[in-house]
User: What shape does this take?
Amino acid sequence: MSLLSSSVLAVLLATSVSPAWQLEVDPWVFEQTREGAQTEFLVVLDKQADLSAAESLPRLERRRFVFETLRATAAASQGPVLAMLADRGLEHRSYWISNMIWVRGSLADVEALAQREDVAKISANPWVKADLPDAPDPQLGACPPPATEASLLHIDADVFWDAGFEGEGVVIGGQDTGYDWDHPALRDSYRGWNGAAADHNYHWWDAIHSGGGSCGADSTEPCDDGSHGTHTMGTMVGDDGTRRVGMAPKAKWIGCRNMNQGFGTPTTYAECFQFFIAPTDLSGQNPDPSMGPDVINNSWGCPGFEGCTDPNVLRTVVENTRAAGIVVVVSAGNGGSGCGSVNTPAAIYDASFSVGNTNLS
Assistant: This one.
């Protein structure tokens, strides 16, 4: 091989291999920051909490251990990155559910962050349209509804109710488009309602900090800007005294809005998981792990074709929630019954309890 051809080959090899920092950045982030544009993304730090000791602890001690360990890990490692973000004047928000920071910045900011030794990954944070069902056909309501939904009888819910299992003593957390908390089928089971007045501290959090549709941003009481969340909570606990539509009608519920008019991001989802591990007052202060739910419903997905190109973007979040002793129930999606049709976060994780549906035939 001639000296000239060797030099050409060396140049080709050098230009075909991405710099090391680029390998740590989700391709979606590059697409969104072309020509100097800014976008939002997640800075995932290299240091993550070791929660292996949690499993052997009693329930409440386990929750507190997980909360304190996660928060301490974030506090001990995020300082230098937060200082850098402040110096660059970048909008950002810190999280401990997974040791990460939400940032809005440019490609130059992405490069500076990705080159840091304490940063493991720059993940995409797209606004993803949830795969929610269409509104029901008005004709379907023409007949008087049954006292108990046929779907509940199909899975023998009444057998469990007759045996005394109606959800009493269980707290369910729901994260979705929000909740119409004073709906007749939901009000009495809302943990923030005492029968005479409502107190939403520790029972509600809004992860939507701008926009928010009919609810606005940072709603201080449960509000649903879509209707899907109210529907899903009805499936869990709904009972207005004459008609029972919920599987666990005597359970209590708390809620978190993770979608803005049907659009959520990995960050809004993660923020709700964080709230459920240690619910706070309405100002986001005084977290209390003892107020967390026993189980969380997640009737949403984050498909790759809409921007969640990293299937592991929420894996640590879900695993840390499970480490706290909280069951993470996730919709298997609406993709059908074929092989591979359950294919989006968070239904694909081993730490999730994924639930599908069946017809009544």
Summary: The two ends are 72 Å apart (CA to CA). The chain is about 25% helix and 15% strand. Residues 1-16, 135-142 have pLDDT under 50 and may be disordered. The first strand starts at residue 39 and ends at 45.
